[in-house]
Design goal:
Layout lengths: L3 E7 L3 E6 L4 E4 L14 H23 L3 E13 L8 E13 L2 H15 L1 H8 L3 E8 L8
Parallel strand pairs: 5-6
Antiparallel strand pairs: 1-2, 2-3, 4-5
Length: 146
């Protein structure tokens, strides 16, 4: 069993969640909803968790295949339902960016296995009706920030 403790520590809506090892994140609602920008929005934490979960899966799979990963990043974009309470994630897209001595076919397969089989957070979202999509880029130039 996992134990998480959540305590309100900043204003009305600023919470800190911590695990038994002392790792913590801060969460808050938007200023438009009365928050003070103290932390990450809880629904964003869910997407971050999916990124971490799938990233761990993908690195494990590629390491077993003796692929050399020099850099690994991902960009996650999400769109929530409008007009519903609760407002769930409707569409989520991940772009996996990998650099190194990596076979593109192996990278694509590792990402697919993570997103469709191993990542518990992705499966949780999918069961909630989220449309998940992804793109895999290997040794491609990083997209420019605008």
């Amino acid at each position: 069993m996992i134990e998480i403790n959540v305590n309100r520590i900043e204003g009305d809506f600023g919470f800190e969640a911590s695990d038994a090892n002392g790792h913590a994140i801060q969460m808050d609602t938007s200023p438009e909803s009365g928050g003070v920008n103290f932390g990450i929005r809880p629904m964003q934490v869910l997407l971050m968790g999916m990124g971490g979960c799938s990233g761990i899966d993908i690195v494990m799979i590629l390491k077993k295949q003796r692929q050399v990963i020099d850099q690994f990043s991902m960009k996650i974009e999400g769109e929530r339902e409008s007009g519903n309470d609760p407002s769930l994630w409707q569409n989520v897209k991940i772009v996996f960016n990998l650099t190194g001595d990596i076979d593109i076919d192996k990278a694509e397969r590792a990402c697919e296995l993570s997103m469709k089989k191993y990542c518990s957070v992705a499966e949780t979202l999918r069961r909630g009706g989220t449309n998940l999509s992804w793109e895999v880029r290997v040794n491609a130039p990083a997209p420019k920030e605008i």
